[in-house]
Amino acid sequence: MVSMDPAIERGAARVAGGASPPRIVPRVRLPFGGLGAVRALIVPLLILALWQLTVNREFYSRGQLPAPLDVIAAGRELQDIGHLVPNVLASVERVGIGWGVGAAVAIILGLAVGFSRLIESLLAPTLDALRAVPSLAWVPLFVLWLGIGETPKLTLIALGAFFPVYTNLVSGVRQIDRKLVEVGRAYGLRGWSLTREILLPAAFPSLATGLRLGLAQAWLFLVAAELIAASRGLGFLLIDGQNSGRADIILLSILLLALLGKGTDWLLARGERRLLRWSDTFRGTA
Fold this sequence. Notes:
Layout: H1 6-16, H2 35-56, H3 68-80, H4 84-115, H5 117-131, H6 135-146, H7 150-174, H8 178-186, H9 191-202, H10 204-225, H11 234-244, H12 247-275
Helix pairs in contact: 3-12, 4-5, 4-7, 4-10, 4-11, 6-7, 7-10, 8-9, 10-12, 11-12
C-alpha cells in the first residue's frame, strides 16, 4: 500500500469534513516597480546621509566638499544663466551618436568574426591589441588627425562603445548550439540569410549585454572626449569647475553623469526585457 503525504491527508480530511479551503491573501504591489524601487534607493540615501554628516563634522571645508543643498543651488545657478540644459544636451547628443556608430560597426565586425574563422584570424589579433590601449592615449592622435571639432570627440566615444559590443557579440555567436546552424544550412540558409535567421537571434542575449556595456563605456569616454577643446558638455563643466575652484559644479557634473548613465541603461534594460520576454532564464532569488 502506498502511503500518502500527511499534509495531503490533512487537506483531504478538511475538505471531506466540509471545512473551507484556506483563504488566499492577495499580494500587494507597490507602484513604480514595487519593493525593488524602494531597495534601489537605500544605498543612495545612505550615501547622501554620510555626505551630509561629513559636511556637518567639517572633515573638509565647504570649498572642498560642499553640502548637497549647495550642489543643488549650483545647478539652479547654472540653469538661471542658461548653461545647464545646453551642456547636458550636448553630452547626451555626443554619447548617442558615438554609441550608435560604434555599436553599428561592432555588430558588423562581430558577426563577421564570429561567423568566419578566416576573418577572425585576420582581424581578431589586431582588434584585441587595440582594445588594450587606454582612452586618453588616443586623444593627442585624434587631435592631430581630426582637429578639435566634434569629429575627434565622436570618434573617441565610438571607439569606447565598440569593444564591449564586439567582444560580447563574437562570444555569443561562438556559443550558439552547432545544431541550430546545421538546421539552418539544411534549409538552404547561407551567408547573410543564415546570419539574419539563425546567428543574430541566437546571439541576441549576448548582443544586448554588449550594447549596455558599450553605452556605459560611451559615458566613460565622454569625459576624455570633452577634454579635446570642448566649449560645452558635462566634461567641460568638470574642467571649468576645476579651473574656477568650484567643487559644487564638479560634484553636480558627476551626479548628472551618474543619473544620465543610469537612465539610459534603464531604457536599454527595458528594451532588452521586452525583446527577450521569450527567454526562460534564471532571474535570481527574492
